[in-house]
Amino acid sequence: MLSFSALSVVATLAFSAFTSAMPLDPTSAVSTVGNLLPVPALPVGVPALKRDTPRSVAAIVADVTVQVTPYVEQLKYINKQNATLEVIEPVVTNIKGVFASAVVEVQGLMGLSADVILAPVTGTVAVTVAELAQIIAGLLTLVFEVVGVVLGVVDSSILSCVTYLLVSLAELVGCLVCAIVMLVDGILANLVATIVPLIGAIIPIILQLNVLIVIKIFGIAL
Ligand SMILES: *[C@@H]1O[C@H](CO)[C@@H](O)[C@H](O)[C@H]1NC(C)=O
What we know:
By secondary structure, the protein is mostly helical. It has one domain. 61% of the residues lie in helices and 0% in strands. The protein has nine helices and no strands. The protein has helices at residues 4-21, 57-76, 85-107, 114-117, 129-153, 159-184, 191-195, 203-209, 212-218. Helix 1 packs across helix 6, helix 3 (85-107) runs parallel beside helix 6 (159-184) and helix 5 packs antiparallel against helix 6. The longest helix has 26 residues, at 159-184. The two termini are 19 Å apart. It binds 2-acetamido-2-deoxy-beta-D-glucopyranose (NAG). Residues 74, 77-79, 82, 87 line the site of 2-acetamido-2-deoxy-beta-D-glucopyranose.
């Protein structure tokens, strides 16, 4: 488990990236790390927060996976001919939008009971650390694998633009993980340590992008 001070450093990194990467109206974004610790005021205009019953972390992450899958599918089969910025950018922007809403929704769970936060996707028994790690690792793998595909296909003339775009996506993914880790800290032990062995396949892509937030959260050695 990360120490609290290490977590604070990561959180600061994550949420400065979050506010700069946030595709939504910046006036409605949660703008400081400080807003994380107490229950943040509900930003207006974020549909995810208008639910009567807050969704659990597992339900949010599972839904992000469902929502990003069609976008991932669009990027999965790009080739040299159609791997252009015009094709890639809107798809990545859509994926970022899904993650940004999820970050806000997870932050909205701060201060709620463990029953709510750890509710399962279906059924009534609270998720275990292994189950939640599996759901999160599945989402990370889905996203970073396709990031790897895109990086491998794009022409060198647009590689730096595309890399920049993918780094901004990866930072938002890191924000979501960071928000989850902070939220479950104290109610679910060893989440990070349980995720790490499940994401071995995507670590080279994370290192290639050099996404500091993700590297720090998972303590990936450079
Ligand atoms: C790019 O072309 C391939 C091969 O024709 C196709 O399968 C894929 O769907 C195309 N992707 C996009 C995003 O247009």
